[in-house]
Prior knowledge:
Blueprint: H1 4-12, H2 21-29, E1 34-37, H3 44-54, E2 58-62, H4 66-78, E3 83-86, H5 92-103, E4 109-112, H6 120-126, E5 133-138, H7 157-164, E6 170-175, H8 180-189, E7 196-199, E8 207-212, H9 217-231, E9 236-240, H10 244-256, E10 261-264, H11 270-281, E11 287-290, E12 303-308, H12 315-322, E13 332-337, H13 340-352, H14 361-383, H15 388-395, H16 408-411, E14 414-418, H17 420-433, H18 439-447, H19 452-456, H20 473-485, E15 489-491, E16 499-501, E17 515-519
Parallel strand pairs: 1-6, 1-7, 2-4, 2-5, 3-4, 5-6, 8-13, 9-11, 9-12, 10-11, 12-13
Antiparallel strand pairs: 14-17, 15-16
The protein binds adenosine-5'-diphosphate.
Amino acid sequence: MEDARGLLKQYFGFDDFREGQKPLIDAVLEGRDVLGIMPTGAGKSLCFQIPALMMPGITLVVSPLISLMKDQVGALNQAGIHAAFLNSSLSMGQYRKALDLAREGRYKIIYVAPERLETEGFLRFALSPGVDISFLAVDEAHCVSQWGQDFRPSYLKILSFLEKLPRRPVLGAYTATATVEVKEDVLDILNLRDPLVVTTGFDRANLFFGVKKPRDKYRELESYLREKEEKMPGSSGIVYCLSRKSVEEVCYQLREAGFSVTRYHAGLSDTERRENQDDFIYDRRQIMVATNAFGMGIDKPDVRFVIHYNMPKNMESYYQEAGRAGRDGEPAECILYFGAADQRTNRFLIEHGEDNQELDEETRRIVMGKDLERLKQMTFYCASSGCLRHYILDYFGEDSGTECQNCSNCLEEFDLSDVTEQAAAVVRCIESCHRNFGINLIVDVLRGADNQKIRQRGLEDNPEYKALAGMTVPSLKQLMNEMMMQGFLNLSNDDYPVLELTDRSEELLSGEKLVIKVPKREEKQAPKARKK
Ligand code: ADP
């Protein structure tokens, strides 16, 4: 029998396995369940494709995305491996034919959408005499978890499907999400038996991480691209926007400004999407402006920068999208443009978007709560003055130790500023409001704004009215963000998010110090509290 390394070379053309691949493959071949947690681009697919070639019978790969299945099956067939996919993109006739061929043993690997598993036709196939499913690989396994960013209730069907099979296949689960909750859910819900768990490092040392808060995002982008053009002519990059509309606008403006640019979003025809994608991949266009619909299953090694024109909805999405830069291991930059509106837009999308429509009311409420919590963590990333890489790795449960010196915060010069007094004023202000208000109103009270909202609620009489009149709105919001990050304040997940005190808030009134880092160039704006 061919060995795994031989197949790696023969079918995929690679000489060596990457970190984590070999142990995950060997375990499956020995009949042991596995959980592979590896960042995007690390090469998870080979971890189930190679054992699939070596085991008797058929391998089923459960995968959530039609586009991903198509791409992977296309690539496998091109490499000379018989594979097929079964999902809603097939007509009834095509679907039946594929199942017939599968029954005849034509395919070594079958990709299947989770919804299909328990349909009558598929079960009939799976239970046919002579059909031997020896290995079931669950790709994007975080979809089983309500803690994952893409919870799919249909993933919960995997276990009951397995129970119907005459012989339980070896089970492999693969994901790029490494948070503790997700990992435990995957192990539990899929009921992996004595699995080998392999987690490869999430750090991508060649990537520079940056956060900017430009007044004018477009101008910032244009000058960044000009500089790139000058210093590294011809380098490729992706600009991610939150909406199709902004993709259109940014792409149009860049084209007018003379850049080699194309675009991608779900509103374009299949043909145009394919063409634009190819233009980017084959370097006919340098810049791809896209929504998050772009990128899954695309492997362009030499993407030199990924700019997020808007903050994405969570760290998982951010790291996955940013991680498309620098797959070749050469230096690349991942820069996020943060604007206050980004948080509102994301909130709106979480509350009203299509993502969770298929869920029942109760589950939707739970999922939405978790989505809002993740949005908060994403916002903290943008507000953080600490090492950004440290923040990312910490989020994914990895201890990163010291500062990286390769992110905008590590390179920025900061002064330490003791803001205990100001933070205490915030706490007292919220306390004396006797009911909860949102950030903007509390900012207005502290700065002593004279507007209708303040007057209507009699907030001029709040003892902290004007207490922080000397601070700018952004620096006051930054202070509140810092307080939230350090657990002195909380922003509720209600329809109208309100500021709440926490168990720790009182500490600021009784001696606990709050020191924040203020960028040196903002020194002049260092906050001042009014003496009482
Ligand atoms: P993931 O699913 O983890 O995001 P993929 O399976 O799509 O990653 O692999 C990412 C890229 O890495 C693919 O282009 C794949 O061909 C390549 N790759 C995977 N394993 C190896 C290897 N051992 N050597 C070189 N390239 C590899």
